């Protein structure tokens, strides 16, 4: 009996809950059992007992009665065993691989790895397996906490990872590295060792952690692997609660690494030819303001550095101020400055203006003083590039107004504004089709609403089946165009875990998604007729669509959904 049918028969699950869980499995990275436990429908023990019963395997509710040899487990390695998860144990002279679920990767290893063939499979709960792994691997005192931290940073540098995370899971700490698609576990630590590493990081940042208080700080790391190269690491300390001891002061840490990024051109970053040409227009502007919006880690800085690389060909003086400098530019006409507690953005901008550069990059507008100086620079013959925290390219006017900035003054110097996100496309080889009617009702309703979202969508979607792909017919638009559309035929989701093209991840290499609101002469002439349009996004979008070819992130994401490049989950993350 299948797992869903089994739990329905046990009245632990409804058919609707199972349907939604199956869809979440088809577009996500988790197994169905994990999804069911995450949703609270069943327990970890329920899953383990079902797995044991359905596969005819022995169930071990308590691993303490088994013989667990440390060397034998170390032979397989922590990374492999933790990811399954599994532990090697013996009972009555029989060797077992004790796991929580029989995965395809485990089955393959059992079939093809000679060392695995001598083991039988048994089932236990995840918590018992993690507890056993902790006892085996955490007891290893081969390295000090300082050495463990340095090793983790070096690994992240070697693999080009932007983030390292010291996070708590079960009753242990994990050092986790962000990869292109998935996170990679580097090492497991006891609660005590994990907290000591957190304290070592805090000492490197010269800050004191206080119970219940988050903190943002930074430190410089000198890499041995890169022959002393110094990189800047920004750290977010996150206070967490402890179920074990309410008096414990526990933290997690997220370390963002700057300094080893490379500068690429727009096409190499992943922009389409159309978007690359729009971004290259920065070269023709002798002055004005270019603003990038988007969350941390969305690629704004990478895009700006590609723009600075292009602008450096003008041979004029370029000054940048950042917190910290993320990429060292080698062009002789570019000077890069770090800000500090004593030398913030307002002071740095004043210094920049006195230096009379042709082009200025201000890492971020955070306050009224910095915003006003940026506008002054743009009005007095400088080209200014800067970033701003805003939800979209068209919401900047409200943000600047909240900073007491004259919006008309801002509008007069504005060249273009971008909003950017990063996403993982589906693997073109193994992606699979899901018919619209098979989607959970909440997805169907949201997608049908988005078919009619506003006049910003510059074409009519007449959706047809063509060898499993979606087609759209381009069409001049109004909001009424969507009234004729009754359904979406199908969408695509991640495919097989055995795919050789994507390595079983289901996804292709990460790409940027960008909207560019270009405020050209025609747009400005129209907006000057009624400046209130700046605070009415739907009207402002209409003007930009008609006079500059604007296309929003939501429209871009919807196109990619219909083309089968992304799944609904990625679509909603990009468009909301």
Description:
The chain is α/β, with parallel strands linked by helices and 576 residues long. The protein has four domains: 43-134; 145-258, Beta-Lactamase (2-Layer Sandwich), CATH 3.30.450; 266-423, Rossmann fold, CATH 3.40.50; 432-510, no CATH class. The protein contains 22 helices and 21 strands. Strands 13-12-14-15-11-16-21 form a seven-stranded mixed sheet, with helices on both faces. Helix 7 links the parallel strand 3 and strand 4. Helix 14 (345-355) packs parallel to helix 15 and helix 19 packs antiparallel against helix 20.
Keywords:
single chain, 576 residues, 21 strands, seven-stranded mixed beta sheet, alpha/beta, six-stranded antiparallel beta sheet
What does the secondary structure layout of this molecule look like, with pairings?
Elements: H1 3-9, H2 15-27, H3 32-38, H4 44-55, E1 58-59, H5 70-76, H6 78-83, E2 86-91, E3 94-99, H7 104-112, E4 120-123, H8 126-137, H9 145-159, E5 163-169, E6 172-178, E7 183-189, H10 191-205, E8 215-222, E9 230-240, E10 250-258, H11 266-269, H12 273-280, E11 288-293, H13 300-311, E12 318-322, E13 334-338, H14 345-355, E14 359-362, H15 368-379, E15 383-388, H16 396-402, H17 407-413, E16 414-423, E17 432-435, H18 441-450, E18 465-466, E19 469-470, E20 490-493, E21 511-518, H19 521-527, H20 537-548, H21 553-562, H22 568-575
Parallel strand pairs: 1-4, 3-4, 11-15, 11-16, 12-13, 12-14, 14-15
Antiparallel strand pairs: 2-3, 5-6, 5-10, 6-7, 8-9, 9-10, 16-21, 17-20, 18-19
Helix pairs in contact: 9-10, 14-15, 19-20, 21-22
């Amino acid at each position: 009996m299948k797992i869903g049918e089994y739990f329905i028969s046990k009245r632990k699950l409804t058919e609707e809950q199972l349907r939604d869980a199956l869809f979440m499995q088809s577009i996500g990275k988790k197994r169905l059992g994990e999804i069911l436990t995450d949703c609270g429908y069943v327990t970890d023990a329920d899953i383990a007992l079902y797995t044991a019963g359905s596969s005819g395997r022995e169930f071990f509710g308590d691993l303490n009665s088994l013989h667990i040899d440390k060397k034998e487990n170390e032979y397989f390695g922590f990374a492999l065993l933790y990811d399954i998860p599994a532990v090697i144990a013996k009972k009555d002279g029989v060797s077992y691989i004790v796991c929580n679920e029989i995965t395809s990767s485990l089955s393959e290893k059992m079939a093809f790895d000679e060392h695995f063939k001598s083991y039988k499979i048994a089932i236990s709960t995840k918590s018992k397996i993690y507890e056993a792994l902790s006892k085996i691997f955490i007891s290893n005192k081969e390295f000090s906490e300082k050495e463990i931290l340095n090793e983790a940073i070096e690994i992240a540098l070697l693999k080009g990872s932007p983030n390292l995370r010291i996070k708590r899971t079960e009753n242990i700490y994990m050092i986790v590295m962000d990869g292109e698609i998935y996170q990679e576990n580097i090492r497991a630590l006891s609660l005590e060792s994990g907290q000591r590493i957190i304290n070592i990081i805090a000492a490197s940042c010269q800050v004191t952690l206080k119970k219940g208080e988050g903190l943002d700080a930074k430190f410089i790391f000198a890499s041995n692997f890169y022959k002393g190269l110094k990189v800047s690491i920004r750290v977010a300390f996150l206070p967490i609660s402890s179920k074990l001891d309410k008096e414990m002061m526990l933290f997690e840490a997220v370390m963002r690494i700057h300094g080893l990024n490379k500068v690429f051109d727009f096409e190499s970053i992943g922009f389409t030819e159309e978007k690359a040409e729009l971004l290259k227009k920065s070269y023709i502007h002798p002055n004005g303001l270019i603003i990038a919006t988007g969350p941390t880690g969305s690629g704004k800085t990478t895009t700006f550095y590609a723009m600075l690389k292009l602008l450096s060909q003008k041979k004029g003086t370029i000054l940048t101020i950042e917190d910290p400098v993320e990429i060292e530019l080698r062009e002789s006409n570019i000077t890069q400055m770090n800000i500090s507690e004593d030398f913030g953005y307002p002071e740095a901008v004043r210094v920049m203006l006195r230096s009379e550069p042709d082009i200025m990059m201000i890492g971020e507008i955070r306050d009224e003083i910095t915003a006003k100086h940026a506008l002054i620079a743009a009005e007095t013959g400088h080209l200014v590039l800067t970033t701003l925290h805003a939800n979209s390219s068209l919401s900047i006017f409200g943000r600047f107004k909240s900073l007491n900035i004259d919006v008309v003054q801002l509008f007069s110097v504005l060249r273009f504004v971008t909003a950017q996100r990063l996403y993982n496309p589906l693997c073109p080889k193994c992606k699979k089709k899901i018919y619209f009617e098979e989607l959970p009702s909440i997805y169907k309703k949201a997608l049908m609403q988005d078919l009619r979202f506003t006049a910003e969508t510059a074409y009519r979607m007449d959706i047809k089946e063509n060898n499993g792909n979606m087609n759209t017919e381009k069409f001049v638009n109004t909001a009424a165009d969507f009234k004729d559309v009754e359904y979406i035929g199908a969408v695509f989701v991640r495919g097989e875990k055995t795919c050789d093209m994507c390595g079983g991840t289901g996804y292709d290499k990460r790409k940027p998604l960008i909207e560019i609101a270009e405020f050209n002469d025609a747009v400005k002439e129209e907006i000057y007729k009624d400046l209130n349009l700046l605070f009415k996004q739907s009207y402002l979008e209409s003007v930009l669509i008609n006079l500059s070819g604007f296309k929003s992130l939501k429209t871009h994401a919807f196109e990619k959904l219909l083309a089968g490049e992304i799944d609904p989950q990625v679509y909603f993350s990009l468009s909301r």
